[in-house]
Write a structure and sequence with these properties.
InterPro entries: EIF1AD, NA-bd_OB-fold, RNA-binding_domain_S1_IF1, TIF_eIF-1A. By secondary structure, the chain is an alpha+beta fold. 32% of the residues lie in helices and 20% in strands. It has a domain of 88 residues: Nucleic acid-binding proteins (OB fold (Dihydrolipoamide Acetyltransferase, E2P)). A five-stranded mixed barrel has the order 1-2-3-5-4. A hairpin with a 2-residue loop joins strand 1 and strand 2. The protein starts with a helix and ends with a helix.
């Protein structure tokens, strides 16, 4: 095992309790823009671009929906000077660290919605769509009926004699 990986793992275990320094805030990754630039959203719902330093490139992988600690102390000055990149990622938050921060008072209220609430809303929307589907049979859009799949073997009917006997 390389020393870099070992130290990252050790830092992750020791750093389960994350404290934010002055000027740092928690942001959610919205999109990866390429060239070490990511789009993030802060606790107020403001979107901005952040720089993902090269020292994190091969040791941390982030995706949409990940949480990062961002140094946004020079954010206003950067935006005033015309720079599109407003902040720098200082730390990638792991799952354990996110759970610990959610329980503390440092977690932004905009991120407190749980995935379970969203999935409930999604299932309600799906049931509404299922209810609407039978109504769509009325307007066929002049499509021919579906033909039987001849590639599928049908099981033998075991009691075909009793069915024919009841008809006669």
């Amino acid at each position: 095992m390389k020393a870099g990986r070992k130290n990252l793992r050790r830092a992750r275990v020791e750093g389960a309790a994350v404290t934010l320094a002055e000027g740092e805030s928690i942001m959610r990754v919205l999109a990866l823009r390429g060239s070490n630039v990511i789009e993030v959203m802060d606790g107020k719902g403001v979107k901005s671009l952040a720089l993902f330093p090269a020292k994190f490139q091969k040791s941390f992988w982030i995706k949409n929906g990940s949480f990062v600690a961002v140094d946004a102390s020079g954010r206003d000055q950067a935006l005033e000077s015309g720079s599109k990149i407003a902040c720098v990622v200082s730390q990638v938050l792991f799952h354990d660290q996110v759970r610990a921060l959610e329980k503390s008072n440092e977690w932004p209220a905009i991120f407190k919605s749980t995935p379970n609430e969203g999935s409930d809303a999604g299932t309600q929307g799906q049931t509404a769509q299922v209810d609407e589907e039978p109504n769509s049979d009325e307007d066929d859009d002049d499509l021919p009926p579906l033909e039987e799949n001849t590639n599928r073997n049908r099981p033998l009917e075991l009691y075909s004699d009793s069915d024919s006997g009841s008809d006669s």
